[in-house]
Each structure stands twice: as structure tokens, then as C-alpha cells.
Amino acid sequence: MDVTKIFGSNVFNDEVMQNRLPKDTYKALKKTLVSGEPLAPEVADVVANAMKDWAIEKGATHYTHWFQPLTGSTAEKHDSFISPTMNGGVVMEFSGKQLIQGEPDASSFPSGGLRATFEARGYTAWDCTSPAFLKEDAAGNVTLCIPTAFCSYNGEALDKKTPLLRSMDVVSRQAMRVLRALGNSTAKRVYATVGPEQEYFLVDKKLYAERLDLICTGRTLFGAPAPKGQEMEDHYFGQIKDRISEFMKSLDIELWKMGITSKTKHNEVAPSQFEMAPIFATTNIAADHNQLVMETMQKVALRHGLACLLHEKPYAGVNGSGKHNNWSLSTDDGQNLLEPGSTPHENEQFLMFLCALITAVDRHAELLRATAACSGNDHRLGANEAPPAIVSIFMGTELTEVLESVASGRKRKGKGSSFVKVGVDTLPPLPRDNSDRNRTSPFAFTGNKFEFRMVASSASVSGPNVVLNTIAAEALDVIATRLEKAKDIHREATAIVREAMHKHGRIIFNGNNYSPDWVREAAKRGLPNISSTADALEAIASPQTIRLFGSYKVLSPKEVRSRHEIYVEQYCKQINIEARTALDMVRTLYLPAVVGYVSDLAASVCVVQDAGGSAAVQKDLLEKATGLLESAYAKTDRLDRAAHKARTITALRRQAVFYRDEVMVAMKDLRADIDALELLLPRSQWPVPTYADMLFKL
Ligand code: ADP
Ligand code: MG
Predict the structure, then answer these.
(1) Which end of the chain is more exposed for a tag (fewer CB within 10 A), N or C?
(2) What are phi and psi of 505, to 5 degrees?
(3) Which atom of ligand 1 is nearest to the CA of 338?
């Protein structure tokens, strides 16, 4: 296998464009890419034609505007290239207009009240900074996919890409101001870069098909723990089994073809849990690619007789899945702005960006927390396996000492360390390894980037990065303004560090984030601790958020409110589906099985007693099973009533809280009985696969 030949073979990338486009068209397109201006129609026509020819040579018959509605997944409507001729035949056509803009019916996508039903049309517009690519399916279809942004008739964003592109511009502009103020003249643009590590579970497809809860909700709503969990710590980085390795190999090939830099693969902590990480890319490409990663994982799994679970908590009692969002800022000439440098000048620059992040994360901790909120992540955040729901920054002790020393104007503690003067001294060497040890922090500085670890495994990475880019931009804006006005840059830079540490240093925490002491300490520091989605989502539409997004034109107040509404609605819908699935399973699978078992026991009691035996064991089992059966039956009713009531509540916020406090609780309560019954009934009479089946039989 020649990976260099496979890689990008299904991408209309720079190399293909150079080979296939007339020189002036190529130049015009490149110019648009850099300037962000719209493509001239003549140019678009030529590009479209070249793209079509390339796609057809590779077997494509259809094209689609591939977009990311607010459902969190992707959408595509396939159109073939055919166009009728006068003599009843067809030719394959694709115009510049079709490339640049599409008009899908938007009425079935969530709009949060942005789109009136009489104006159902939505518009998709080509994001030419993310290259077109081909998708192949097992049926042999090849489709040309054009990454697009999706908006309403009035130009309001209905998708995840539009605000992401806007936020990338905003952070670039403000970061450039800081660089210029510091005399860094070589860069022309700053890119936010992201490398999302993706965790997932695999389960045998046959077992998956027997679990309605996995099919409908992505997680098991019932299931007694297997005798073995993850306590032996034998899965993490363990040897990869052949069956899984075959899946991973196919996955890599499919991803590489689409130009996705799949780099790392390994077993994760929980049994049957795995991880894949790509090499980082600019934010919008990373976000597009991550969507493709999730989609491809699911598709390839099925080909291997497996099902891929992207849910944050498919199984109770073992670790759930997250997405580590590695984020940094890089210039177009290759400087990583979060990399400590070796000269005083580089360090001054580094400290400014570091302080911008400290300020941004502290000021908008609740908003950042909200970007990780979804019903699935509620089972994970704060559950002693994932970052807690409290946002804090891990900075490493060395770097923290440097910052404190600058802030206080005192020498650093210990090791004969010295005083650090911003812009005059170099930083003491910062051991990168040291900074990467703390795995409990939700937001960790890992030497040259920040790793935001709260992100939900099933979610698009757009939301978290829209927020990261925008809050960083806001903090950089303030820093830039100060530096631009300063008479003495170094002194101002020192003052900026001092202020960031005084006002926002409370966000830095280098200890164990899982410990109960931290919860108390965080409360003392006034850091928010928001444990549920129903509460966390409120930050999305807070006056502070509306002001932030509005002033940088990332999202208008209307767009912000629509998103808030959609996400709260999604939360309610998810819990509603869980409740209905639970009721269905209990009534049609679990209760009948237990009733059957109880009858068997009763019959056995009679037979044995007739024969003169005592049937004491049967009687005991009968009593236990009957007790649990009656209890489960009553709890089923209770859950049903709660779910009914929830559906009638019209005020969204109240509805979400009711789902959390009543429906979720009733569901958990019911689960306890069913799981107890699972441990009582003969395996042969249990109607669904067990945890042991699903977790250990791969
Ligand atoms: P780990 O966090 O497991 O130690 P690495 O640090 O090697 O692993 O990288 C994790 C992820 O961070 C990878 O996807 C990598 O591409 C990404 N990454 C590395 N540098 C950057 C950067 N400057 N910006 C964004 N992501 C980055
Ligand atoms: Mg990592």
C-alpha cells in the first residue's frame, strides 16, 4: 500500500487544481482564497467544469452541496450531472452557478424561528477554503461533495460552518493587530488551528441490532454491570485485536483518500473503546474533517460487522467518550503563537497570547462550558472520569510561576530562578513533558497549544471553536488597543500580564481536578460549576454572549437566540426519545421475560411441593422476582406519566428542567429494578445482550 498515492486521491486539492485549471483561473481562485472575496462567475464556470471532469473520471455521477445544519450532523442532497440534449440523450454538466450556490429546501432543518414556513428555501454557498472531495459508498456510488455554508433567505446562519468562518476572520484580525503592535511584520494572516482527538466504541453489529436503546438513543438505557469493568487497566494502549485492526485499516484508507490526516489510533480506557487523532488543520477544515471522520467510522464499522458508537456514555460504569479539541493560533508564515520562543521578543509575544487566553477563558467560562453541553455529556462531565463541569486552565507549575513572577515583580520560587522581565529576558526553559501530565484538567496548556477536553464525542467541533476563536479575539482586541497606544511596549506588556493574572489568575489550577477539594476551592474562587445541560445552555443566550457575538458580528442576537432555542429543544427531544425507548423496552421485552420467569417459578413450586419437596429456593426467588416486577411495573407508569407531562410543557426552559429533574430521574429509578432483575433471571431468558456480551465479545 503506497499511502502517499492514496492520500488525497479523492480531493480536488491544490495540486489537482494546478494541473487542471488554466493558469489565470488558478491564480484568480487562489486570490479569492486569500482575500475571501466572492469568486467571479466566469472563474466559477471554469472551476466547476474542471471539477466535474475530474470527478467523472473518478466515477462520479452526482454532486452535492455538503453542509452542516444545526442538528450537529451533515446533510447532502444528491443531484446527478445529467442535463437533457435536444435529441433525447443527456450530457454531463455542472455550472459555476451550481458550484457556488445551492437552494435546498430548508424546511426540515432546525432554524429556531429564523425561517418562516412560507420561506422554506435555504441557501448553500461554497466554502472554497475547504476543498471539494469525492465520497464513495459501498454500493459503488461516487459523489462530488462541495463543502458549503447554509443560511436562510435573509442571510441568517442556519448551520455550524458560517459562524466558524466568521470567527476565524475575527480572531485573525485581532491577533494580527497584536502582532503588528509588537513589531512582528512577517505575518499576513493568523489561522486558528485544531486537532480533534475522537474517541468511540465498537460493538458487534448483531448485538447492536438487538438493543433498541443503542439504536434509538446511542446509549444503553439498561444493563447490569459486567463482572469485569476497566479496573484491570488492561485495555488502554493495549494490543489491538485483529478484527479491530482490520476496521482501523479500512478506516485509515477511507480517510486518507479524502485527504484526512488520520495519524494516531489506539485502544482507549474502557473495554471496546478506541481513539483516532488526525494531524491538526485550520479550524474549518478540521471541523469538516471531523464530521467526515465520525460519518466514515460508522460506515466502515458496518462493513466489518460492527457498529460504531459515538455517544458520550454508551455504557454506565465504564469511561465515556469525549473529543479533545487541541487548539492554537498559527501565522501564515508558520509561527505557532502559543509556542514559547527562545528570544525575549518571541516570549513577549507568547505571553500576550497566553494572557489573552487566560482572560478569555475566565471571562467566558460559562459559555465555554455550554459548548460541551448535551444530554450525553451530562453522564460524563464531573463523573470522575472526564473533566469536571468546572472550567479551569492547567498551565503547569513552571509557567504559572513565570506568570506569577511577572505579575508580582518578584523572583520566581526555588531552583535559583530569576526574575523575568517581559520583552527583555528569555523565559526559563519550560519542559514540555511536564506540562502534559495533568489529564484531569478541562482546559490544559500542553506546551504549544490548549487542549479543551470537555467537548462531547458526538458533537461537531464547530461550536467550541466558534467560542474559542471569538473569546480569544475579544481579549486580543483589548490587548492590541493597549499595545498600540503604549509609549513603552515592554512596560505595557508587563502591565497586561499583571492585570490578566490579578483579574483572571483564579482560572489557573494545576492540581487534581477530580478531587472534591477542587470543587470547594473553585467555589471559593467564584468559578462556575454547572453540572447539567439544562442549566449550562443558558449561557448561550446570556446578555454577555449576545454582546460578545454581536460586537464581532459572529452571530447576530437573533442567530444566537435561535441557536439557544434549538439546543434546548434538542436536549428535550433526546430525553423524550430515551424515555419512550425505555418504556418500549420494559413493556415489550423486560416485563414479559420476567412474567415468564415468574410463571416458571410458580409452576416449579407447585410441582416440587406436590412431590413432597419444600421448594424453598423457588419460593424465595419467586418472592424476589415478583417484588422487583411489581416495583418496575409501578415505575414504568411513573415514567410514562412524567414523559407525558413533560411533552405538554410549553416554556422551553421549564421543559428542559422537568426532563432533567423528573423524567431522567424516573428513568434511572426504573433502570435500577430492571438491572436487578437481569442479575436474577437465567441468562437464556434475558431478552437482550448483556454488558459482558457487548463490551467483551469483540
Ligand atoms: P496527546 O495530546 O495525546 O499527547 P499530541 O500532543 O501529539 O497528542 O497531539 C494531539 C492532537 O493535537 C493531534 O491531533 C495534533 O495534531 C494536535 N495538535 C498538535 N499541535 C497543534 C496545534 N498547533 N494546533 C492544533 N492542534 C495541534
Ligand atoms: Mg490529547
Answers:
(1) N
(2) -60, -20
(3) 23
pLDDT for res 432: 61
- Is the domain spanning 571-696 CATH 1.20.120.1560? The answer is yes
Q: Say which CATH class 3-159 falls into.
A: alpha beta
Does residue 436 have a pLDDT over 70? no
C-alpha grid cell for residue 250?
Answer: 479500512
The CA distance from 223 to 676, in Å, is: 9
- Please state the rounded mean pLDDT for residues 259-273: 93
Confidence of residue 154 (pLDDT cuts 50, 70, 90): confident
- The response to whether residue 449 sits with its C-beta less than 6 Å from ligand 1 reads yes
DSSP label at residue 64: E
For 572-600, how does the pLDDT look when each residue is reduced to its tens digit (9 = 90+)? 999 999 999 999 999 999 999 999 999 99
Distance in angstroms (rounded) separating the CA atoms of residues 506 and 298: 41
Which of 598, 575, 692 shows the shortest CA–CA distance to 645?
575
- The rounded Å distance from CA 450 to ligand 2 centre is 10
Residue 261, number of CB atoms within 10 A of its CB: 17
- 195 CB within 6 A, ligand 1: yes
pLDDT tens for 367-408 read: 999 999 999 999 999 776 778 899 999 999 889 988 998 898
DSSP 11: B
Mean pLDDT of the chain: 93
Question: Which CATH code fits 198-218+235-322?
Answer: 3.30.590.10
pLDDT at residue 409 above 90? no
Q: What pLDDT is stored for residue 215 in this prediction?
A: 98
Q: Ligand 2: distance of its center to the CA of 324 in Å?
A: 6
Predicted confidence (pLDDT) at residue 118 exceeds the cutoff of 60: no
Q: pTM, whole model, 2 decimals?
A: 0.95
Closest ligand to C-alpha of residue 447 is 1
What are the residue boundaries of the structural domains of the chain, listed by start? 3-159, 160-191+334-417+433-555, 198-218+235-322, 571-696
Q: Which letter does DSSP use for residue 658 in this model?
A: H
277 lines ligand 1 (CB under 6 A): yes
Q: Provide the pLDDT confidence category of residue 116 given band limits of 50, 70 and 90.
A: low
Can you tell me the distance from the alpha carbon of 364 to that of 325, in angstroms, rounded to the nearest whole number? Answer: 17
User: What is the pLDDT at residue 110?
Assistant: 83
Alpha-carbon distance 278 to 107, whole Å?
35
Closest atom of ligand 1 to CA, residue 279? 16
The single-letter code of the amino acid at 273 is Q
* 366 in Cβ contact with 530 (< 8 Å): yes
Extended beta strands in 138-189, E state: 142-152
Residue nearest ligand 1's atom 23 by CA = 328
Q: State the closest ligand 1 atom to the C-alpha of 448, by its place in the atom list counted from 1.
A: 23
392 residue type, one letter:
S
CA 657 centroid distance within chain: 23
Confidence at 686, pLDDT banded by 50, 70, 90: very high
Q: Is the CB of 47 under 6 A from ligand 1?
A: no
What's the pLDDT at 489? 94
Residues in the chain: 698
Which among 289, 356, 286 is positioned nearest to 326, based on CA atoms?
A: 286
Cα(448) to centroid of ligand 2, in Å?
A: 12
Q: In angstroms, rounded to a whole number, what is the distance separating the alpha carbons of residues 358 and 419?
A: 21
